[in-house]
Each structure stands twice: as C-alpha cells, then as structure tokens.
Design a protein that fits this description.
Blueprint (H helix, E strand, L loop, with lengths): L1 E2 L5 E9 L4 E9 L4 E2 L3 E2 L13 H8 L19 E2 L6 E2 L2 E2 L14 H8 L20 E6 L3 E2 L4 E8 L6 E4 L1 E7 L10 E4 L12 E8 L2 E8 L5 E3 L1 E9 L9 E3 L2 E8 L9 E2 L5 E3 L5 H8 L1 E4 L6 E6 L5 E6 L4 E6 L4 E5 L6 E9 L2 E9 L1
Parallel strand pairs: 9-21, 10-22
Antiparallel strand pairs: 1-4, 2-3, 5-6, 7-8, 9-11, 11-18, 12-17, 13-16, 13-20, 14-18, 15-16, 19-22, 23-24, 24-27, 25-26, 25-28, 28-29
Amino acid sequence: MKGFLNNIFLLVVFLPALLMGQNEVSIISIYPDSCLDSECVWPGDANFDGAVNSKDIIQIGSLFSQTSDNKRTMATTNWVEQACSDWEVSKFNVNAKHADSDGNGIIDFLDTEVVEKNYLSVSLKTDETIPSDSLGPPIYILSNYDTVNQSDSIIYSIYLGSDETPAENVYGVSMKWQHETPEVFGSDNSADFNGSWLGTKNVDMIANGFPLEDGIDIGMSRTDQQNRTGKGRISTVRIIVPDNLGEIQKDINLVLTDLLIISFEGDTIHPNIILQDPVVILRNRIKDLNILEKNVLVYPNPNSGILNLESRLQLDKIRIVDLSGRSLYVQINPSLHEVFDLSGFGRGLYVIEFQSGGVTAYERVFVE
C-alpha cells in the first residue's frame, strides 16, 4: 500500500506584528508524513489484511490492554493511511500498532468502535475460504422455528463444540452467516452474546455483530490472553422478516460464508461444518400451525441421545426422519410426554414431525 495522507491539516497562527502595530494571520499547511506498506496504519484494519471486518475484533482482543508511546501524529479514525512507528509487540505476525485503531496508544474497547465505523472499508482485495475438518468440533446453527410468517423474528442459535468433540483452546471467532433470499435483504439483523461460553461481553470478551444486507458478520474475542475450551451456544442471531412480502412463499437459509477460529498462540481451528434446513416463510399467517408449534416443546436440543417431547395438545402422530426424508420412527396417538432414545441414530440433524387435527409441524434436533 502506497500513498500520502489525503488529509491536509491547517494550523492558523496569529502573530503580533511588532513593526506594523497590528495582528496578521499566517496560514501554515502541515502535511503528515507519507508512509509505505507496513509503515502505514488504516484505522480499523487491526490485522492488516486490507479490509475491515469481524476478524479485526480478534486482533484487538489478542492485544487488549497493550500500550505504547508510539502514537500516530494527528491521529484520525477516518479511512486514510497514516504513518506510525512499530510498537515493541506483535501478534499473529502483525504489529500491535494496527490494533490501536483510534491512535491514542492504548488498545481497548474504544478501538472496536473504529472497526464499526470503518466496517467493510477495503484497501486491497482479499480471498475468503472456509477450511473444515470432519473430525473437528462441530459448528452449526439452529433456528427457533421451521416455519415463520411475515413480520416474525427468526432466532438462530450458533453452536460450537459438543460433548464428544469440544472446541479446544479458542481465543477468537470470526464468522459470516448469509442467505440468498432477496425478498429478505435489508431486514433488521442483529447478534446477541448473552450466555456465550467463550466469555462475557465487555468483561472478558469483546464482541460485535455487523449487520449485512443478506445476513450478519460476527466477531468475538477474549481479552485476557487466556484460551477457553467449551461446547454449546456462542451467539444468537435475530433476523426480522419484512411485512411486505405479499403472497409469496420463500425459504431462508443462513449459510456460513467466512470463518476464522483461532487460539491466542495463533493456531487455527478447523471445525466440522454442519448444514441446516431452511426456514420456510409462509404466505399467510396460519393460526392452527402457530398454536401447534407453541404448544409442543422438544428438549434438550442439542442432545446426547435422550430427547423429551411435551405437548399441551393431544397429538395424532409423531414421526422422526433424517435429512434425506427417510422415516426412522413412527408413533400413533402418543402421550402428552414422550421420551425418545436417539442414541442409536448417530450424530447429526433429525426432524421431528408431529401432527394434530390435520395440522403438521416440524422441529429440527441435533444429536451430538
């Protein structure tokens, strides 16, 4: 990256003119130093990869609380290249000065605000790929409902790790979840981190959800230089379906499009990426279906093989199928509380189909 700062700072100095007996105004133009390549800092590009996105949250978290006297001269948070001397510390082969997004010599929570300000700014093109490992810790997303209506909120829970394969030595996670449903583009997307096993936001973790036109970009990182091993939910995503879809019926399916899981030592973790079925957005509000869904509870989800189903309504039939549609279990006229042993089914996603009075609803469950 080459170039000069495109900001020109004007310093107005009032000088007493002793001989003239009056004040004169002098305009002094000050041009900050030019910079070349790694000398340059782009505010918000904490990992110096040429783009501002959720990965920069991990870099800031890995260098959290670091300080230096090497502050940027006339620092600005605007998206312009600025010269800065290297700090004495680096992380992931990137000098810490890049994580000081606001240029005040301290890496703290305020630097994440600059990432949000300059989000999606690019100084060079990057190639994004998703490495995976079938033996790695599972990462998957589960929605609260299989079917929704216009103006409803779709709540997605994002899980990392399982009892069998926990996610080990995790310090930061960056991930994008996107869909290809144009009718839902621009909906109100947000992320929540309450209950995340990776940490507590603004305590020992920094975390941000950056809304995208077609999904969300999530960055989260611990701030105490300590890895964590765990399993379960790490974040929750909310997508609100627009209320002006008319008579169309659409599927919406969040897909993982970019991912980085990394330890404090810089080791990357390749997960086992598990896909999900789409959520169906119905044409019109179906009252009976809503009543059925709201009165049937399936838990725990995910589970280790033992699954409970409680219903306030009398069900006519329960059926369990795999993702290929193959029927694995059928029960006619079940009781209001049933316990299923799925341990022999193998790890993966299954669909519970329950029927009552001619209405059929579905619930996806994950066996760890």
